[in-house]
Amino acid sequence: MPAAKPNRKAAARKKRLAEAIEALTALQFGPQQRNETAAYTLLALLDLQPDAPWADAQAPLRGITPIIDFIATAYGNRYAPNTRETIRDDAVKFFVEEGLLLRNPDAPNRPTNSGKTVYQIEPAALALFRAFGTAKWTPTLARYLVSRETIKHEIARKRDLARVPVTLPDGSQVALSPGGQNPLIKAIIEHFCPAFAPGGVVFYIGDTENKFVHLETAGLASLGVTLDSAAKIPDVIVHDTRRNWLLLIEAVTSAGPVDGKRRKELKDLFAGCKAGLVFVTAFENRLTMQAFVSHIAWESEVWIAEDPDHMIHFNGERFLGPYPDVMPTKSSSSVAK
């Protein structure tokens, strides 16, 4: 008799997994999104135990690690930590693209690559799964499939509203994903560039959601530069056409200033460039800069968004000497004589 309980539990788990695969198949997902990993991921995001009715499905907010933990506890299938990317790319990411899941509905401005990123079943999908195994399943499924594109469009519209609009020097606009360093990138484009590279051309802007959200391939090629998608590219690249300088700018909110190692990496990455290289680290404020100031490379520049009209030169073009506002006036010069 004692052996019957584990057998019943294993049978319930197997049956529930098969049901999840059946549901994903009915939703017309391809083989890679209706396999065991995808089915377990779906069950975790529905918080559905093996012996609970589908009507009990819920919509918790869960990140990748809590999803893995739920699968291990509820279904006895333990995924190794290095499978996080598989779950994210083969299941979660695709479910988000198809409108089955919402990403960060609790905080739309949270960066995509944040360790706090969470996912949640979309409300119409939750209502659909709660009907699985009942007489309501077939008509609910038919209505859902008809409305799927509308649901995806509405999700995309809300996501776009949270995006960070950036106006380039030529007046065109780029929309960056919300949160993270992107507000600082916006300040770099809209405040740093007009002040320190007037008339400059923005050749590249990186985004956590889309690495090549803005790329002027022809402009870079004219300077002998080709960017490899696998390379660690600076956050912003601007060509100061007047002085033929290529400004390589890192936007730093939590990591990644131009230190000695990074300066060498960038110098090697842009070897052969027909423009002079200028290395810039941008911070939101002085408080953030304080945590990194001991790491800033010599022969590089620092710009702080809260003081947009000033630049800090780490042994840059200006050396020892008075600035214009502290030069002696003509009257004081004559007195000295």
Secondary-structure element sequence? HHHHEEHHEEHEEHEEHEHEEH
Q: Major sheet: size, sense and barrel closure? A: 7 strands, mixed
Portion of residues within helices = 40-55%
Strand content: 15-25%
General shape: elongated
Mean model confidence by pLDDT: 88
The whole-angstrom Rg is: 27 Å
The tally of helices reads 11
**Annotated CATH architecture of the largest domain:** Orthogonal Bundle
Number of domains: 2
Number of strands: 11
Question: Which parts are unreliable, with pLDDT below 50 for 5 consecutive residues or more?
Answer: 332-337
Care to describe what's here?
It is a single chain. This protein is α+β, with helices and mostly antiparallel strands and 337 residues long. It folds into 2 domains: 4-161, Arc Repressor Mutant, subunit A, CATH 1.10.10; 165-314, BsuBI/PstI restriction endonuclease, C-terminal domain (Trna Endonuclease, Chain: A, domain 1). It contains 11 helices and 11 strands. The strands form 3 sheets. The protein has a 7-stranded mixed sheet, with helices on both faces. Strand 9 (276-283), helix 10 (286-290) and strand 10 (300-304) form a beta-alpha-beta unit. Helix 2 (36-45) packs across helix 3, helix 2 (36-45) crosses helix 4 (84-97) and helix 5 (123-130) packs antiparallel against helix 6. The protein is elongated and about 95 Å long. Residues 332-337 have low confidence and may be disordered.
